[in-house]
Amino acid sequence: MAEAGSDDKSAGGADGRPPATRAGPAPRANGSWHADDRPRHRRGPAYGALDLGTNNCRLLIARPSRRGFVVLDAFSRIIRLGEGISTSGRLSDASIGRAIDALGVCAAKLARHEVQRMRLVATQACRAAENGRHFVERVERDLGLALEVLTPESEARLAVAGCVPLIDPDSDLAMVFDIGGGSSELIWLDLGRRRSPGQNARDEKLRRPIDRSAFDDCIVAWISLPVGVVTLAENHGGRHVTPAQFEDMVDAVTGLLVPFEAAHKFRHRMSGARAHFLGTSGTVTTVAGIKLALPRYDRSKVDGCWLDAEEVREVTYRLVACTYEERIAEPCIGRERADLVLAGCAILEALMRMWPIERLRVADRGLREGILARLMAEDGFHIGGVGRR
Q1: Which has the minimum average pLDDT: 164-173, 281-290, 343-352?
Q2: pLDDT tier at 35 (50, 70, 90 boundaries)?
């Protein structure tokens, strides 16, 4: 889903979610392991989460720990699976080849870490393409990876679940968004729903980080916009973008937001309320990296940082004024993203114009972390933050 970022960055069962794909032996009903099939990881089994998006293929392998989970391995590669799909309606042979190559790397990593539980998901490109189902079948036949094509709602909820710990519990409202390659997911949360009558955001127990299991109760509304950085750049241009073309992109996204705002009136709800955005995508991590003047992208400095709205706009319009070659030279962009970053900035600008906010929090985490948290919670592990190996 997310269009870029760093390497460290549902229908089915009784609970409405499909059972996770298993590789290797399953635990006993009481949670123990057979004597001859215990995983070799001394401190717990390995879990895997794969996100095959319109632009990126990402894998995260982790094990539970007392503080949350510890990352054992990660992989991220720009594959542009959805390249050209907005005009052809199909996944091209070239994009399929790039995806198969990347998925082969992921399959090898999953095997090497003896992953016991995994969930492997695909998003907008596979949802929209005429040959998406054929591609999914080929991946399972050739690589043994069973991809699950997420619904837009499942995609949005998992992305939120992955970055719940970064939501400011002192706020009244928060909008979590993920600007993807082929679609963008938005979820509005009313944090007041966590409070009993007479409580306010200053109460100590409400100032603690929001538990992942409780965020569903706070969801007011969500939408999946049929636009992402790849589709927007293909329709409006990505390499050479004039200020007028940038405004055209902003207007196109705004047109998709208007009916959602008319139905839910969040501008009115924001009046007098403490509200913030939480963005989980390569667009916001890139903007943060540039604002922080990082000589190279550093997840530890970006994940969880706060940006003022004016800081976001300062970076956005600096990039609009840059040439394509100057964007390539920016260390937090590079050649692979230089033709997509302005499309992402246009989507972000449209969100900020529709719902004027003062603060944006940046998350270099999302769908994969949400998948891991759900899988581990199903197995009885309480998951908080994300640790490092």
Answers
A1: 164-173
A2: very low
What local confidence, expressed as pLDDT, does residue 212 receive? 54
Determine phi and psi for 132, rounding to 5 degrees.
Answer: -60, -45
Residues 6+ apart with CB under 8 A from 263: 221
Rounded mean pLDDT, 27-40: 32
The residues, ordered by sequence, that sit 6+ positions from 24 with a Cβ below 8 Å of its Cβ are: 37, 114, 115, 116
Nearest to 91 by CA among 55, 44, 144: 55
Q: Tokens for 296? A: 């190279």
Q: Which residues, including other chains, have CB under 8 Å from residue 93's CB and lie 6 or more apart?
A: none
Length of the chain: 389
Per-residue pLDDT of 92-102, as tens digits, reads 999 999 999 99
Q: How far apart are the first and last CA of the chain?
A: 25
Query: Is the sign of the CA dihedral 279, 209, 289, 74 positive or negative?
Result: negative
Alpha helices in 37-92 (DSSP H): 85-88
| CA–CA separation, 339 and 334 (whole Å) | 10
Pairing of strands 219-225, 306-308: unpaired
Alpha-carbon gap, residue 169 to 192, rounded angstroms:
10
Q: Write the DSSP string, 196-243.
A: PTT--TTSGGGSSPPPGGGGGGGEEEEEEES--HHHHHHHH-SSS--H
255 and 261 in contact (C-beta within 8 Å)?
A: no
Instruction: Report the number of secondary-structure helices (H) and strands (E) in the chain.
Output: 14, 13
Report in angstroms the alpha-carbon separations of 329 from 5, 142, 287, 292, 338.
17, 38, 15, 16, 9
